[in-house]
Specification:
Radius of gyration: 27 Å
GO molecular function, one term: ATP binding
Shape: globular
Strand content: 5-15%
Helix content: 40-55%
Structural class: mainly alpha
CATH architecture of one domain: Orthogonal Bundle
Keywords: ANK repeat, Repeat
Organism: Fusarium floridanum
Pfam family, one: Pkinase
CATH class of one domain: Mainly Alpha
CATH topology of one domain: Transferase(Phosphotransferase), domain 1
Oligomer: single chain
Protein name: Protein kinase domain-containing protein
Number of strands: 9
Length: 615
Amino acid sequence: MIPLQEGGRRRYIRELEAIFKFSHDKYAKYFAKTLGWYTSQRKLYIAMEYFPAGDLHSYALKHAPLLENECCQIAGQILSGLAAMHQEGFAHRDVKPHNILIHRSPQSVPPASWWVKLADFGMSKRLETGTSGSTRRNGTLLYMAPELFLSELSNGSLFDYPAVDMWALGVMTFFILTKSLPFQDLSSAIDYASDANRSFPAAALIDCKVSLNAQSFVNALMRRQPTERLDSRAALRHAWNQSWLPETQTAPPHNGSSASSSRRSSFDEGTDSSSGQANVSSQLYSKSWSHEYTDNTKSVPKRMPSWWSEDVDLRLLNAALSDDVTTARHLLESGVDLETATPADYADFLRVLFYMDERLVKLLVQTGANLEARDMVDDTPLCKAVGAGNLSLVRLLIEAGVNIEAKDMFGNTPLSEASSAGNDTMVKVLVEEGADIEAQDKTGKTPLCQAAYNGHVGTVKLLVSMGANLESMDRDGKTALFKASARGKEAVVKALVDEGANTETKSRGGRTPLLQAATEGHEGIVKLLVSKGANVDERDHHNATPLLKAAAAGNTAIVRYLLDRGADIETRDNFTYTPLLEAVEQGHEDTEWVWSRAAFNSSQERIRGYSKDPF
């Protein structure tokens, strides 16, 4: 239920937008299904699928701590949902165990896997192209990122909400691993974020004997600077999320015990030593949740894919992990059969080899290995090589004839990946090798849009010089210029405008780059676009102008600049709001420009009769 008074109506519209988007069947495994809704005069009621097991927070409080690979399943599922939201231009903004609903928990015999879903889109926000200009601090305090409270960690007054989601996911993962929170109060989190010399509070992770991979995952999500955190796509590729069993080597617990710190999943099979070597699924055993461990790992490699079994010869994996190219060559040439694994699992094995030694990749090419196999996020070896920035490996794979247009689960080609990362050398090589410069991902973004979105001005210039279409649009009708304007990438905006990008192209919502920049509070970009001839009174589908949007956000400098450039102060949108009324509605009645403009006198009567709920 959502109240419709004051700000509730906007939340009502926002939640319904997210519900429409993520109730599609293709998202059913990630998000709670909405069955319908109805409204009273003051409230919105939303009906959703029933979850008898309740939410993750309540479950965690009532039950013993989860095993690490159960935590990994849960975190990975939520991460996949967030990645889908971020890919579609939304952020959740309130990730916490209370909003994780349990579709299935492992209580059957034999136990089934976890299946959780993300719920509550009331705080979610469409990002336009990723970063919101809103300064509202939504979410639950102890799961909220520090930049929401520390202006020096944000981009002025702007927040990168996907990065906020990643911080919250890190806190949530910490909680389900330890049944505690990394920070017990808001001031502790702020102190940590504002002091570069203060170490991350990892004591609870160490006490619970959490693996180094899991600790690394949490740390990578909870870095002080939003720009330094893993984004959702990179987090999916983290070692902890790559279908691996936990490492046998971990940080030492406080009591000095040398026992293995990894925890066996409640889904694993029992010990099988018929071949004289521990089965992978039985390496790590925990008798209970008291953290007592049995070390059966002496005869297995340091790390091993969780899918590996006795059906596949472990000698080859051992050779790869020990960098023994000679043995690996001998085994491959002797006909060791890797094809007993599924294609995705086989790609996991290739990933092991790729990151160990390029010589092993050459060996796989020479022995006719399948170089188009895909992993759990639909990456091919070429996609992984591009993501790792390994240019020589990329050249090797292209020479071997791999598909240069292979797309991952998000529809990104290797060129998209390189453009998004700003790897100019990789971009140049891929285009010269014939990569489609106009290839689109699942949301319609081209490599140029990807580069512009992430602020890689050098990559933008390179792609344009190599023939990229300046006016290519994604499915929402947004061009590279629009994305750069929304994200505050002023250098990219200048480069695109200098190359002739159209400043008046509208998105499907009717917004121009200027209108979006004014909405997000990017003063420099507003001035740049206006200086290049952008129309200061251009309107979107709701008849809102840049001045209306700037007034709603309380951006005094932009409002003053637009008025000085002749913007209409009495303009009205479809809801009959003027800039002055919009400012008052949003709580900016004390803003200097409201009281200093001569137009105040002509609007004074409207303010006196103004209702907080004009609908």
